Amino acid sequence: xxxxxxxxxxxxxxxxPEETVGPPELLRLGTGFEEDEPxxxxxxxxxxxxLLEAAARLVxxxxxxxxxxxxxAAAASVGKGTVFRRFGDRTGLLMALLDHSEKKFQAALLSGxxxxxxxxxxxxxxxxxxxxxxxxxxxxxxxxxxxxxxxxRRYTSPPRRFLxxxxxxxxxxxxxxxxxxxxxxxxxxxxxxxxxxxxxxxxGVPPERLRDGWLDLVARVTRTECPD
Amino acid sequence: xxxxxxxxxxxxxxxxPEETVGPPELLRLGTGFEEDEPxxxxxxxxxxxxLLEAAARLVxxxxxxxxxxxxxAAAASVGKGTVFRRFGDRTGLLMALLDHSEKKFQAALLSGxxxxxxxxxxxxxxxxxxxxxxxxxxxxxxxxxxxxxxxxRRYTSPPRRFLxxxxxxxxxxxxxxxxxxxxxxxxxxxxxxxxxxxxxxxxGVPPERLRDGWLDLVARVTRTECPD
DNA sequence: AATTAAACGGACCTCGGTCCGGATTCGTAA
DNA sequence: TTACGAATCCGGACCGAGGTCCGTTTAATT
Lengths: 228, 228
Known about the structure:
2 copies of one chain form a homodimer.
Chain A: H1 42-62, H2 69-75, H3 80-87, H4 90-111, H5 122-139, H6 141-146, H7 158-174, H8 180-190, H9 193-202, H10 207-222
Chain B binds a DNA duplex (30 and 30 nucleotides) through residues 10, 12-15, 40-44, 47, 68-70, 73, 78-82, 84-86, 89-90.
């Protein structure tokens, strides 16, 4: 899974949890998933699979809160240290559980059918992007919340960087005179899992209102009309 | 400090850390600081002061990361349980450290001189609000980051609710046709301490650019012109 | 002085995260 | 094919910090 850099602060424990070693590639705007399992040793790969399976089972049966590092290790018949070596920390494990859907989503953005994928006008793609994100948030809310990194790393996790880059790209076309970097952060914040959870679960805001809010936000930010 | 409800999930440990008992007041849009120390017993009040002083000293001397509950308790010559009874949890303690500046800021919004306080047109107040928040973030960045609540409570902490209410109020005037509730979340997200830290410290974005970004965001959201 | 509600304190628990001695795997060469 | 050495991985003991519990102490009240 690699997630190059997002857990780089945890150097001491182990050499490093699955690192990308490739060329600089500073501009390659990767998906955050390049070279996922570089070349794991047989037992390591086996244990990795076991751990993911065990973690997924725990989530399904007892909720994300039950995903304790020790519990996962035990359920996978593996030592606790192995879990940390493989995934770095709890957040890393949880994010690994989201990798599959993440990859699919990224693929849909990069090469899927319009309006989510390329081919539609930028503003339309932005609208579709937000709606898709909101749908995703509703589905995987629990995991997304549990997998949220600490404040320092929140904005540096590869998946997030990718999404931000995507939004910034669309924004550059849809609102050329804006600071698309900063504005992309703002737009993404509207789709934040924690916020969506707060609004829907705690405030009783219906999903349609959230969707309308997104469409209106996009319209205002791009200074276009809201198709309603 | 009361923070009614934001640490209500921690019921079992102690009766409750300083709760607000007053009337419903659902609509009173409080500042989040009503009735701060209801009527603490003498020893309790003394220990509370000691603890805050000790915590502040630790922050000043060794940074927010050194503010361990045990360390604070020891530095204040108090039992560990006392810290938790008084402040609920670590976040509560850290937020209490920010109370002073928080109150001052709220007062400035409610009754200070324009354009921050009442008297200026809403859009202008919004602009001033963002700039003030950004300044605040730069000053108290470390504490603000450390005091950030977990994802579930992030949007329910009284200070946050107040700020959101304030922005929503201004927004209702400046952009009457928008969903000011949702939009206020978006605007506030731009000023989030973690984001500001990421952009300035990790991305090297200069403060002026952040400020310009805010002014532009306000202009777009309210569909006005950017005064630049 | 007696009573009672509140506060105290520190032992205790859980869980994330670390460390390191020992076991496995894999490439290499006889 | 087997032997062997090095790199990698394993596992669970260990640590620190947040959070809890409950028997004891102390401040307010009458």
